[in-house]
Design a protein that fits this description.
- The chain contains 4 helices and 6 strands, in the order βαβββαββαα.
- α1 links the parallel β1 and β2.
- The chain is an alpha+beta fold.
- The radius of gyration is 23 Å and the shape is elongated.
- The protein has a two-stranded parallel sheet. Strands 3-4 form a two-stranded antiparallel sheet. It has a two-stranded antiparallel ribbon with strand order 5-6.
């Protein structure tokens, strides 16, 4: 007999089972994949960590949460800084004032807001055709 039946062994399911078990509860974890960790699963191939479901980026501003999750895995310092190549020019993503400055030759948020608003109006007009 189980106290909990947990479907999925991703972050929530696996941590819930862990914490419930520490409190003396019996847990059955049902997982359709052949591994635990859900989409955070990493497979090592030729000494390289391969993220089968995309990069695992864990964010929190809570020191308590950060300290808690670090008991389960080592974390690499990683900053996600995507770029876009549009017609041979490199732009920051997500869009910021550097992006708008390169695209439109402007330097203030007010100028960017004005251009964005005018483009939204054009899109609305075109969508009604």
């Amino acid at each position: 007999m189980f106290d909990y039946c947990i479907v999925g062994s991703g972050l929530f399911g696996s941590i819930f089972a862990y914490e419930a078990s520490k409190r003396g509860k019996k847990c059955l974890v049902v997982e359709k994949r052949n591994h635990i960790g859900g989409n955070c699963y990493t497979k090592t191939q030729e000494n390289i960590n391969v993220h089968l479901y995309g990069a695992h980026i864990f964010r929190t501003s809570s020191k308590a949460i950060w300290d808690y999750v670090r008991q389960f895995a080592d974390f690499n310092h990683f900053i996600n800084s995507p770029l876009a190549n549009y017609k041979g020019e490199i732009y920051n993503l997500p869009f910021n004032m550097n992006t708008f400055s390169k695209l439109w030759g402007i330097s203030t948020p007010k100028e960017a807001q004005s251009i964005i608003e005018s483009q939204k109006k054009i899109c609305l007009r075109n969508s009604k055709r």
